[in-house]
């Protein structure tokens, strides 16, 4: 009887750090072309980060951003200061290792430290994984949206997106 051989396995453990994005991350956020069409959005988010309007957090593994989340700080008039979390994404081969959750935790930490207490995030209606993640972290659906928006891609072509979504909300303690 043939003995089934186990292929040789090397277990690699690598640290992942959540940090603010740097200029040199911008081309890497495209993940070797997979998200080249978001180039202008990444660049605008980075410009806004320098102005203090947005913040881009990356999950850094070996100096490569294997995941990211962006924060938009809304108009800060009034008592409730709103922040919008968006573009949460983790490279597929690193899914289900807690990186998405850590990015969300760190985003909330940064929001609270800036003195913002109301956080909103959208999950596409077809995206059960994202909705589950947000609900596990205490977010509650408060409405839905057609999810219609447009952007200009890296080739100058206007792309229209229509992705019906749930909008979820959480109140966090200000620092
Ligand atoms: C949504 C997304 C960001 C989640 O990222 P992630 O790093 O896989 O998230 P987590 O690992 O923290 O959680 C995902 C699942 O893994 C589980 N998990 C977390 N750590 C784990 C571990 N160490 N071992 C096993 N499972 C684990 C979580 O419990 C969760 O399980 P569930 O789906 O049954 O609820 C990712 O799926 C993604 O990039 N999707 C494509 C882009 C996208 O949809 N973004 C959201 C836009 S709204």
Description:
With 175 residues, the protein is α+β, with helices and mostly antiparallel strands. It has a single domain (17-171), classed as Aminopeptidase (3-Layer(aba) Sandwich). The chain is built from four helices and nine strands; from the N terminus they run βααβββαβαββββ. The strands form two sheets. It has a seven-stranded mixed sheet with strand order 1-2-3-4-5-9-6, sandwiched between helices. The protein has a two-stranded antiparallel ribbon with strand order 7-8. It is globular and about 70 Å long. The mean pLDDT is 95. The chain binds coenzyme A (COA). Residues 88-90, 95-101, 122-124, 127, 129-130, 132-133 line the site of coenzyme A.
Give the helices and strands, then pairings.
Elements: E1 17-20, H1 25-28, H2 39-51, E2 54-61, E3 64-73, E4 82-90, H3 99-113, E5 118-124, H4 128-136, E6 140-145, E7 148-152, E8 158-162, E9 165-171
Parallel strand pairs: 4-5
Antiparallel strand pairs: 1-2, 2-3, 3-4, 5-9, 6-9, 7-8
The structure holds coenzyme A.
Residues 88-90, 95-101, 122-124, 127, 129-130, 132-133 line the site of coenzyme A.
């Amino acid at each position: 009887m043939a003995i089934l051989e186990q292929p040789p396995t090397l277990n690699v453990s690598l640290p992942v750090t959540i940090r603010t994005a740097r200029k040199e991350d911008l081309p890497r956020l495209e993940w070797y072309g997979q998200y080249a069409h978001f180039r202008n959005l990444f660049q605008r988010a980075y410009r806004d980060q320098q102005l203090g309007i947005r913040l881009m957090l990356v999950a850094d593994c070996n100096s490569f951003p294997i995941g990211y989340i962006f924060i938009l700080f809304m108009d800060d008039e009034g008592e409730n200061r709103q922040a919008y979390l968006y573009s949460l994404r983790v490279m597929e081969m690193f899914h289900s290792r807690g990186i998405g959750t850590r990015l969300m935790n760190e985003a909330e930490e940064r929001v609270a430290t800036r003195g913002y207490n109301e956080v909103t995030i959208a999950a596409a209606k077809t995206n059960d994984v994202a909705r589950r993640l947000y609900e596990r972290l205490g977010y509650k659906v408060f409405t839905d949206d057609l999810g219609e928006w447009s952007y200009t891609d890296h080739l100058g072509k206007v792309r229209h997106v229509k992705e019906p979504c749930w909008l979820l909300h959480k109140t966090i303690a200000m620092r």
